[in-house]
Amino acid sequence: MIPPIASLLQQEAGTAAAASPDGFWAFVWSLAQQPGVIETTVAGVIVAAFFFLWWRVSALRQNARAREALADYLLGVEQAMHGDLDGARERLQRVLEQDPENHFARLMLGRVLVQLDQAEQAHQQHLYLQRAFGVDSVENDLLLAQSLCAAGLPAEAADLAERTLQRAPGQAAGWEFAYRAHLQNGDHEAAARAGRKLLALLRDRGEQQRLREDLARTVAQAGTLRWLSGAGDEAKALAREARGLGPKAGGLLLLEARLEAAQRGVDDTARQLAAPPASAGAGQLVPVAAGPRSLLAGVSGATLPMATFAGLCEEARWACRACGAPLERELGRCPRCGRREPAQLLEPRLVEGVESPTELMDRIEVNEAHVHRLVAGLESGDTRARRELLQLGDRAVQELVRAAWRGAEPAREAAEQVLRAMGPHIAKALFAAADELSQARLLAVGEGPSAVVGRIVQGFDKTALPHMEPLFASARSDHRRVLIDFFLGLGDVAAFQRVLERFPPMEILHRMNQAPAAVLRRFLQAVPRGHFLAESLLLEKTFYRDEDLLAAVPDASDPEVLVGVMRRRGPSRALTTALIAGIADEPRAAVSMHVLEEFGAEVLEHVLAAFAEPDCGDDARRRLSRVLARGGAAAAEHIADAFGPEPSAADDRLRNLLVVIGDDAVDVMVAAYEKSGWLEIVSAGLLRRHNNRRVQLAMALGELGTKAATKALKALHKREKDDNLRLSLQRAMHRAGAGDGAPEGRDG
Length: 748
What we know:
With 748 residues, this protein is an all-alpha fold. The longest helix has 45 residues, at 37-81. Residues 1-6, 15-21, 278-302, 348-352, 359-364 and 740-748 have low confidence and may be disordered.
């Protein structure tokens, strides 16, 4: 059988050799003759053609949709420009349904929604662009500020606009919006600053003149506020600026008359105003009205015509609540600042003669305008306004809560002080005012009125308990927060038991974290031993007021309770930072040192970092050194690695610490001496071994001078090969009394 097989192989080899010149095509031809190859090839071609056609049709369809979306976007922009806001909104929403990442369509949709008075939806669109899509655009940020302003948050809108304009200070439209937003917020000084920047950017003379006239009123209003606060020189400067911008600005004449009266006296100024125009000299006030009307008993017993003073105030019965602009009627929107709020009614002629004073007094009621003026007077420190508000009681609560919620910082503090002084009997009116103001909010952005109520009730005592009882039956989250805040402010752990029984721990911890420092400390100082607060709630990691926990220890009824809480909480970063900071405070120093010593090795590195801080005081550094000294060998490990590459005063302090630790640090110093430092490791042997760290360790052993230290110096000297370091070790041994035939060592 073998010879026939060999002959067949020779024949095949001969055939292959004969076909070698065109072997590839022969291979293809032979492959095609195989069964099923042609059918498989045809099927593959059909499938490839099918997928190619599918891909092409899909591409054409996507292109058609893109063209349709582009057409909708362009038509939506055109409709918005021509005032068809509803149609523009529908088209732009259709574009976003097809392409949610179309930033331009979303930006235009937000602008259209603001014009449709849908501020909340507009705010969401701009917020999506900023947060979800990461669009860092000046135009989007300005539109976001406009939506906030339209939602009734002018302070937040003005702040966002000014932060945005720092990146693009040449945006005239942005500065105009910031100017109007500040006016809506009643911040005339900030509005004046924005108006000055806007005036420098305008190029049209007509627009410049209109802005100068409006800015003059704003500057005069800012000057009036300065005058009311007692800053006369600043008020004079603002009055001069307003006179230069527009001599006929509203409020300017009254401001100048007030400044003149403060300088020359009320009597002379009143007589000068009442004098005929011809008698007024240059540079003096001229009468603002002439012609006798009803007479008023004037200064020094004289009689002055009422028309003398009527011209100092603008002839308007209504005024904007925000910017103070005069209005002809009770409009729903101020044309100057754009505030959407009913106008304020003024009473410019209350001093005119009446036929029956008794009947008029019977008709007088406390109205909103009167309360609003009293609350505005609080910011300037008007004691009369404070007394009258206290007398009004419940009728002034809502306006005071509004001022404490949305007013400027001085007005907030003053309003909260008045509300606390009214006492617990206003609790019902306080809750009603917070509920009404909360319902008027369009967006739940920032602090709500319930937070103001929570701060107020924290100043009430136990007499307010009957007024708080109805809140236990309420399911509203703001009522629950107010209730927890009240019981925290009581500082009575026994009464707080009702809160622990009705509210989940996480909700209580959240309110404790948000409580003012003084309130929380007073509450913590009353925690008794073995209470649930000390055994469970204060041990939670979500409670992060460690600094207040430490500050409450000195005046606590049982300080060991809070000290035990800190021990069980462990050396967290927040607690360690608070303890190290407390070492510099005399009342907290002893407790801080005691707890740090108990934490031991876990906090020694942080204590050493505070000890090495150049700005650390002498008393604090001395206390920190005691903590480190009691750390023993564990502290010595950190200290031995803390020496710098060059000698310094810090090295002396560290070396003294090693000496204070004593023999416990000897083995650590020997190990640190023989270990390569970080500079040697980084330099890969380029630096020689006679570095400052080893010299300092040798000096520390010499200053220690005990038997163990002397023995360690001799061992290091015997092994040391570097001549310079051997010399440092010899000096240290000489200082320890172990060199030149001296005794073996001495006890430290």
